[in-house]
């Protein structure tokens, strides 16, 4: 009988210690996943439009001054954004099917987001979307779908200015939604001639 009582006395502290260790591991795991989600959230764009929320906001559109061109829209990563004149009103003529988006990558919202966010200088009221035939949402500004240009190797470039291809002319766009039809003298291929696309 005394042997049974002594076993019970020693077993309870061991079970309690095992439960405490398991609980501590579970709390530590929750804490580490929380800190990793905090890190990923801080890496995303911080500027949002008045009607956006973290659950449905997507690609950021802001403005910057491009030498020789002026203040134009840029993507959240700083790349100059362009429109194609034939796409006024959201008509998509630059598509994957005709190879246009290989030269002029479209600005598409990430899956699960419903609109772009207006960063510094951009007007949230001019941002919109147009649905492609595959169901993806392209970001628009003043009714024009937005694109970057493969000939811009980095920020502060507007080498796509004035290029005629894919049924229209490519121009950067101002914060007011007006087309910027100046070409930067420093930009190599922005002379207005078509590079054969």
Give your account of this protein's structure.
This protein is α+β, with helices and mostly antiparallel strands. It has a domain at 57-180. Helices cover 23% and strands 23% of the residues. The chain has helices at 2-43, 100-103; strands spanning 57-66, 70-75, 82-84, 115-118, 127-131, 137-141, 144-145, 164-165, 168-173, 179-180. Strands 3, 8, 9 and 10 form a four-stranded antiparallel β-sheet that branches. Strands 2-1-4 form a three-stranded mixed β-sheet, with no helix packed on it. The protein has a three-stranded antiparallel β-sheet with strand order 5-6-7, with no helix packed on it. A hairpin with a 2-residue loop joins strand 8 (164-165) and strand 9. The chain is globular and about 35 Å long.
Structure class: alpha+beta
Straight-line N-to-C gap: 94 Å
Please summarize the sheet with the most strands: 4 strands, antiparallel
Uncertain regions spanning at least 5 consecutive residues: 4-57, 186-197
Query: What is the alpha-carbon Rg in Å?
Result: 27 Å
Q: What overall form do the CA principal axes indicate? A: globular
Strand content: 15-25%
Tally of strands: 10
Regarding quaternary structure, what we see is single chain
Order of helices and strands: HEEEHEEEEEEE
Helix content: 10-25%
Query: How would you state the average pLDDT, rounded?
Result: 74
Q: Helix count, per DSSP?
A: 2
